[in-house]
Write a structure and sequence with these properties.
Distance between the termini: 43 Å
Shape: globular
Radius of gyration: 16 Å
Helix content: 25-40%
Strand content: 15-25%
Structural class: alpha/beta
């Protein structure tokens, strides 16, 4: 059996990796739910795991509650992981986040040497990992992050859309 030439150059994750990515993304969804339910924050959740699949850190948006513009879900997960490891480098780690990271978070991933980013919904306004900018893969940096977008993307997008619709008094989609 020969490969379809149309698929050439398109990376395909092994079946086990897809299941693992979806499992961790669902965990990130529970953290996003917590951000909305407990803090009325924009529901974004993030989970950082090591190369062996062990949980290193988790976070959810807390920038409003903590009066901290840098307290995005990704940053909170990386802070927790850094403390757990006793290191500012998160080499070999994978970050799962429900929304494509902004420029601040994308550069934090680069500086921390995170190996892989898996996100759910794309962000057409401020996404910095492929949508508006592609900071994670910019060849001018001394480290590039492997990016996989769209994991449970429709569900992630619907959750965010419904949060903002509820804020405007509109029914969910």
């Amino acid at each position: 059996m020969t490969a379809d030439p149309a698929d050439e150059g398109t990376p395909v994750a092994p079946v086990g990796q897809v299941a693992l990515d979806e499992r961790w993304m669902r965990h990130a969804f529970t953290l996003a739910d917590r951000a909305e339910r407990e803090f009325d924050e924009i529901p974004v959740g993030a989970v950082l795991v090591d190369a062996d699949g062990g949980l290193l850190g988790e976070g959810w948006n807390r920038n409003i509650a903590e009066h901290d513009p840098s307290a995005h879900a990704e940053i909170m997960a990386m802070r927790q992981a850094g403390r757990a490891l006793g290191n500012h480098r998160l080499v070999g780690a994978t970050l799962y986040v429900t929304l494509e990271p902004c420029a601040m978070c994308a550069m934090a991933l680069v500086h921390a040497r995170v190996a892989r980013l898996v996100y759910g919904a794309s962000d057409p306004k401020t996404g910095a990992c492929g949508s508006v900018f592609d900071l994670a893969a910019d060849p001018r940096h001394n480290h590039r992050v492997d990016v996989q977008g769209g994991v449970l993307g429709e569900e992630a997008s619907r959750r965010l859309t419904n949060y903002f619709r509820a804020k405007r008094g509109k029914p969910p989609v």
